User: Which sequence fits this backbone?
C-alpha cells in the first residue's frame, strides 16, 4: 500500500560534467564546465541556449561521442545508476543506439548517400539484435517503422536513397531509426533547425506522438522558446557552458529569475511584454577566454563586483526552481503582460 507520492525513477543524472577542446594553437576551450542535470522517467527535459553555448557538446558527451581534440575531463553521466563515462566501450556500445538513441540536426547530412532507407532505418536494430534476419524480414520491420512516423508511402520510401528525400522525410527516417529499438532515453538535438515552419511543426508533433507511443524519456535541445514551452516538462538554461537556471516549464516561463533567461524573453517578439522588444546587450563570450565569476556578468545590468569575481552555483530559489545568480532575490519580476 502506498502512503505517499510515488517515487519517480531517475533515468539520467549528469554530475559536474566538464568537456574541453583544444585548438591548433593548444588553446583550451572550456565548452562545458560543471554541468549538473537530472531527468526522470517519462519526462522531457528541454535544453535552451544560444548557438555555440555547448548544447550539442552536452548531447555528445552523454553518448561518449567526444573525439580528439575534445575530451571529457571530469564528471559523471549516470544512466540508471551506471556511470557511462567509466564503463568499458564494449559494454557502452550495447547501450548507445539501443537504450539511448540520438536524433541529430541536419538529418540529410547524417544519412549515408550510398545506402537505401531499409539499410539506414534498420542499422541500430541490426547492430543490437542477435537474430539472424534475412533482408525480407528486415524490410518488413522497416516498412512498419516508417509507417509509425507517418511517412505516406513507407514501402516506396524503404527503397529510396538520401537524395530522393526531402528534409522532412529524412528527419522522419532518422526518428524511425532512433526509436526502432524502443530506447529508454531519446536525445533530440535541434531536430527541426533546418526545416521550414510547416514541416518543423509536423516533426515536433511526431516527436510528441513518439514519446507517448513508446513511453520515452526525452532530452530536447533547441534555441527556440516556443518549441520547449510546448514539449518540455522541465527546462535548463545553458549559457557559455554553464546551467544558469533550471526548473519546470511553468516556473521558467512565468517566473524566470536569471537575468539571461529574462533577457531571452524580452528579446523574443512573441514573449516580450506588450511587444516591447529589448535586446540583450553585448555578445556571446569567447570560449577560449570566458569571463571570471558569472559568465553573463559583462552583459548583465544587475552585475555587482561579486559577480565579476565569484562563480555562482545553482541554488534552490524556490521549490524545484534553481538559479545561479548572486542577486536572484533582487532581480525584478518578469512582467509578461
Assistant:
Amino acid at each position: 500500500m502506498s502512503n505517499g507520492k510515488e517515487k519517480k525513477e531517475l533515468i539520467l543524472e549528469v554530475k559536474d560534467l566538464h568537456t574541453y577542446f583544444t585548438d591548433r594553437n593548444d588553446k583550451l576551450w572550456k565548452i562545458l564546465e560543471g554541468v549538473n542535470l537530472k531527468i526522470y522517467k517519462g519526462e522531457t527535459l528541454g535544453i535552451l541556449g544560444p548557438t555555440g553555448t555547448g548544447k550539442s557538446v552536452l548531447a555528445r558527451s552523454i553518448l561518449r561521442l567526444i573525439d580528439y581534440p575534445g575530451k571529457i575531463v571530469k564528471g559523471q553521466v549516470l544512466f540508471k545508476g551506471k556511470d557511462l563515462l567509466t564503463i568499458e566501450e564494449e559494454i557502452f556500445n550495447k547501450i548507445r543506439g539501443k537504450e539511448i538513441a540520438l536524433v541529430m540536426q541536419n538529418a540529410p547530412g547524417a544519412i549515408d548517400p550510398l545506402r537505401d532507407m531499409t539499410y539506414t532505418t534498420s542499422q541500430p536494430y541490426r547492430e543490437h539484435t542477435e537474430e539472424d534476419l534475412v533482408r525480407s524480414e528486415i524490410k518488413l520491420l522497416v516498412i512498419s517503422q516508417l509507417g509509425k512516423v507517418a511517412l505516406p508511402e513507407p514501402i516506396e520510401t524503404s527503397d529510396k536513397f538520401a537524395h530522393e528525400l526531402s528534409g522532412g522525410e529524412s528527419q522522419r527516417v532518422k526518428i524511425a531509426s532512433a526509436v526502432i529499438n524502443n530506447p529508454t532515453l531519446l536525445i533530440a538535438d535541434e531536430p527541426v533547425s533546418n526545416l521550414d515552419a510547416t514541416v518543423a511543426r509536423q516533426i515536433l508533433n511526431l516527436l510528441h506522438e513518439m514519446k507517448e507511443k513508446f513511453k520515452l524519456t526525452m532530452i530536447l535541445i533547441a534555441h527556440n522558446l516556443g518549441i520547449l514551452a510546448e514539449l518540455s516538462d522541465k527546462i535548463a538554461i545553458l549559457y557559455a557552458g554553464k546551467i544558469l537556471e533550471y526548473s519546470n516549464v511553468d516556473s521558467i516561463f512565468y517566473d524566470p529569475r536569471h537575468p539571461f533567461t529574462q533577457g531571452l524573453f524580452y528579446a523574443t517578439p512573441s514573449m516580450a511584454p506588450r511587444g516591447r522588444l529589448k535586446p540583450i546587450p553585448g555578445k556571446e563570450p569567447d570560449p577560449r577566454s570566458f569571463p571570471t565569476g558569472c559568465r553573463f556578468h559583462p552583459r548583465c545590468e544587475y552585475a555587482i563586483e561579486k559577480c565579476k569575481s565569484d562563480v555562482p552555483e545553482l541554488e534552490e530559489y524556490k521549490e524545484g526552481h534553481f538559479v545561479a545568480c548572486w542577486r536572484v532575490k533582487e532581480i525584478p519580476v518578469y512582467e509578461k503582460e
